């Protein structure tokens, strides 16, 4: 997949952007910036209440900014309950997962370093069926994560 940086002054209306439906929510690609200073991506994530994705370690750093609802972020052995306006930084190589503990769906921005997260989200959404239990799709999940350098905590790795 070729990554195409967002052109300058390219506004996206609400709901626009590539939708990548994943175990932990719909990740909508809003921007990819790549220039002489580096690269980052911006995603709007809409997540429903329910169990979180398995804890995982990504090769990119991320910042989450809560827009609506409550988000619970598990980082290593700590738990952080976050409400609108709250921000958390997740350095590359940190085990984490995000969940919506109860109530209504939550919405947050995820800003990630580099250009790998978008490729991972697109591959995951294309490769893993969300209408089957995670236990049944674990081989597909692990294949996608391996391709992108994401490690699922506690899962067997090659």
UniProtKB/TrEMBL annotation:
* Coiled-coil blocks: none
What Pfam families does the database record attribute to this sequence? Cupin_2
Domain Cupin type-2 positions:
45-111
At the top level, the lineage of the source is Bacteria
Name assigned to this protein: Cupin domain-containing protein
């Amino acid at each position: 997949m070729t990554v195409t940086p967002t052109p300058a002054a390219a506004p996206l209306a609400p709901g626009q952007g590539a939708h990548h439906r994943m175990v932990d929510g719909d990740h909508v690609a809003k921007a990819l910036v790549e220039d002489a200073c580096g690269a980052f991506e911006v995603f709007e994530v809409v997540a429903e209440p329910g169990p979180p994705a398995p804890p995982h370690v990504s090769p990119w750093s991320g910042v989450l900014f809560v827009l609506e609802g409550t988000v619970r972020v598990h980082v290593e052995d700590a738990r952080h309950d976050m409400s609108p306006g709250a921000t958390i930084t997740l350095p590359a190589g940190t085990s984490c997962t995000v969940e919506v503990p109860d109530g209504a769906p939550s919405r947050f921005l995820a800003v990630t370093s580099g250009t790998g997260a978008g490729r991972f989200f697109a591959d995951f959404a294309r490769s893993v069926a969300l209408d089957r239990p995670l236990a049944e799709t674990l081989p597909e999940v692990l294949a996608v994560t391996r391709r992108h350098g994401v490690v699922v905590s506690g899962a067997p790795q090659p």
